[in-house]
Amino acid sequence: MTKETTRAFKIFYCEYKKRRKSGMSKKQAICFDNSEIYQLHGLIKWDPSDVDCAVNELRAEGYVKTDILGGVTLQDNSIEFMENQSSKYFDDIKDLFGGLLNLIGILK
Q1: Which of 24, 72, 96, 103 has a beta carbon 3.0–4.6 Å from 32's, enabling a disulfide?
Q2: Per-residue b or e along 6-19, where b marks 16 or more CB atoms closer than 10 Å to that residue's CB
Q3: Domain assignment present for 46
Q4: pLDDT digits (tens, 9 = 90+) for 2-20
């Protein structure tokens, strides 16, 4: 995966963790509507075509599924992959999420 796609992957995962921490069910937390994707913290400044490229690469790797409306659903294997990463893996997005990474249990 490209570095840009890996960064997007981390952003989706952090958003998922934030949703779960706030009490959202897993079934809801893994789903991102098309319009919502481009507004995610960390992706809002990206060109939409770059977000689309990252999503397409994540889909090709089997980490997400997309629907015909452009929505994205994280797959169980993507969550498992991220859960098995060390906190250092998320160093490059600390600037985006700061203390939130501690709150959602990614940095210990």
Answers
A1: 72
A2: bbbbbbbbbbbbbb
A3: yes
A4: 999 999 999 999 899 889 9
**How many folded domains does the chain comprise?**
1
Q: Is residue 77 part of a domain?
A: yes
Domain region containing 24: 3-102
Assigned token pair, 7: 């960064």
Per-position DSSP letters for the chain, written without gaps between them = --HHHHHHHHHHHHHHHHHHHTT--HHHHTEE-HHHHTTSTTTTTS-HHHHHHHHHHHHHTTSEEE-TTS-EEE-HHHHHHHHTS-GGGGGGGHHHHTTHHHHTTS--
CA distance 24 to 86: 24
Question: For 53-101, how does the pLDDT look when each residue is reduced to its tens digit (9 = 90+)?
Answer: 999 999 999 999 999 999 999 999 999 999 888 777 777 777 666 655 5
Residue 60 domain flag: yes
- Six-digit token string for 97: 């999420």
pTM over 0.85: yes
